Structure formats: C-alpha cells, structure tokens
Amino acid sequence: MKPVIVVHGGAGVIVKEYEERYRSGVKRAALKGYDLLKQGGSALTAVEEAVVVMEDDSNFNAGYGSVLNEEGEVEMDAIIMDGKNLATGAVSAVRCIANPIKLARLVMEKTDHVLLTANGAALFAKAQGVPEVPGEKLITERSKERWRKNIESNSNPVATQVGLGTVGAVAIDSEGNLACATSTGGISNKMVGRVGDSACVGSGGYADNIVGATSTTGHGESIMKVILARLILYHMEQGKTPEEAADAGLNYMKTKVEGLAGVIVINNSGDWTARFSTKQMTWAAVKEDKLQFGIYHGETQTISVEEALKN
Ligand code: ASP
Can you give the pTM of this predicted structure? Predict the structure, then answer.
C-alpha cells in the first residue's frame, strides 16, 4: 500500500492576512507525517506527529495558540484512534500541557479507558511524566484579543463561530492501517468545562481499517448531534466514495441541525478528500510524493514533495 496523509487546520472563515501562515502550517504537518510514513512508520504515529506540528504552531487553535474559555483560560480536547483494532484515546477539558494529542495516545496505550477529563487527565499526565506548562504559556496575544472582542460584542460566539484552527490528520500506512487524530482548544468563550466533538469518538474522528478514517472540524455541538465522523464512514460502508460520503454527512448536518463543518476523509484504498460546508478550510495531503493543499472551495494547489521541501 502506498502511504497517504491528509491534514486539516480548521474550518470556518480565515482572515486574509493569515491565509499564508495556515497554508504553510498544514503543508509542514502533512510533510512531517508523510516522511514518517515513507520511513515505514505507522499511520498512528504519522497522524500524531502531524498534529503535534500544528499544536506547536501558534496560528492554530490547538495546543499553543488555543482559543480561551469564558474565564480567559485554555481548555483543550483531543482524540486519537487506531483503525487496526479501534483502540482509542481521548482527553477533554485539559489544561497546562503543550500536546494534548500525546496525552490522548497515552490514555489509549496505558489505561483501560478511552477518555480522561479535566483533573483526572491532569493527574494521569503527571503520573506519566508529561511536563506541566503554565497555562499562560499557551495563550497568544491573538487569542486574548479574540476573547476580549467576544466579551465586548455581546454576541453568542458558541452559536456563531466555527473552526478557528482546530487541527486533525488521517493516514494510511504501507501495511494498510488507518488512523485519525484531532486536537483543539474548542470554541472561543465557551463555558468552563464545555467538551466538544473533538474528544468524542465518532464525532471528532473515527478510524476503522475495514472502511476508512475521518477527522472533523466545525461547530462541535452540531457535529456531536449527528456523530459526523462515524456517519461519514457509514456512508462509505454503503458504497459511497470518500467525497460522496463527506458531502452526505455535511449536508445532513446542515439540514438537520443547521451546523457547519469540515472533514478530511480517507478510505482503505488510499482515496481521500477534504470537504467543508463552511466558507473555508485549510487542508493539505500527500500521496505518491505529491503535495496538494488549499483553503477555498475548488482550490487545489499541487507541488512535488521534493519542491516543497526546498522551500
Ligand atoms: N469542533 C471544535 C469544537 O467544537 C471547534 C473547531 O473545529 O474549530 O470544539
């Protein structure tokens, strides 16, 4: 099997001046994951490491640069899933760690559980030797400004804002194993303790070697109501292509609960797609040494991996 990786950097409305940063962030993440896959690495490690690249990049709403809750603090959700055996690890409402996706993988590998939350997740992180980062260290000027504006504007940010840089990845490795990973700071000015789709298996992501893998981004409350990631896999089980399945899931979510989202999808043959009902979604994919990426509907730029690595 030829390895393939697809990543996203969130769906929603991206301010023009940030487009280039998002493009270069998703490209770096996809190239990192692809490099690991080419060296014989597993899909699981490729999606984890691709997500780490974006968690460490302050432009994305995950890890460093996460949006803030109503108290002005960072609380993050993440999930990772192995399509080989449906092993899953997730964390929700975690604070003071740089890479929630790594903690999610530890939950998967070192506990009998699927999801650890808040204080329990913090205790587990400590026991595993995960370094604690002061909460303020994860906060950027941009996230503070967005938080302040939301408070002043008196709008309902949870209802109106989607996708300000949640990150995710799906991959297939040379052995035909599939995996997904998703990580987010959630929705700006959310209530303390709010948990979104990104920590929930079947909503923020799903991977099953028999069918495919998906990572989602967008309005979490809507995604959870339709269990978007698993819904898309269901459509693929019924014979739809990744693109048809993605559109069926997104359309259902729009008509049923008026929610907008974006998804990356791959099937067990390595066919993939990046689809969204929002105005934009940043994405990048690498297959057969070709890097493709885009932000707008209908936009696909293509360069060789060799060329991309020179820049
Ligand atoms: N789905 C995320 C959440 O609701 C937000 C996003 O994707 O931007 O927590």
Answer: 0.96
Angle at 274 between CA 268 and CA 275, to 5 degrees: 120
Q: What is the CATH number of the domain that holds 265?
A: 3.60.20.30
Distance between CA atoms of residues 207 and 267, nearest Å: 10
Spacing, Cα 238 to ligand 1 middle (Å): 27
- 258-291 pLDDT, tens digit each: 999 999 999 999 999 999 999 999 999 999 999 9
Number of domains in the chain: 1
In angstroms, the CA 238 to CA 235 distance is: 5
> pLDDT digits over 219-231, tens only?
999 999 999 999 9
- Least Cα distance to 163 among 18, 49, 4 occurs for 18
The atom of ligand 1 lying closest to the CA of 162 is 8
Long-range contacts of 106-113 (CB under 8 A, 24+ apart): 106/130, 108/80, 108/82
For ligand 1, say whether the CB of 9 is within 6 Å of any of its atoms.
Answer: no
Atom of ligand 1 nearest to the CA of 204: 1
166 is catalytic: yes
Catalytic residue among 166, 182, 216, 217: 166
Residue 123 phi/psi, 5-degree rounding, is -65, -40
Provide the pLDDT confidence category of residue 164 given band limits of 50, 70 and 90. low
Domain of 130 in residue numbering reads as: 4-310
CA 207 to chain centre: 13
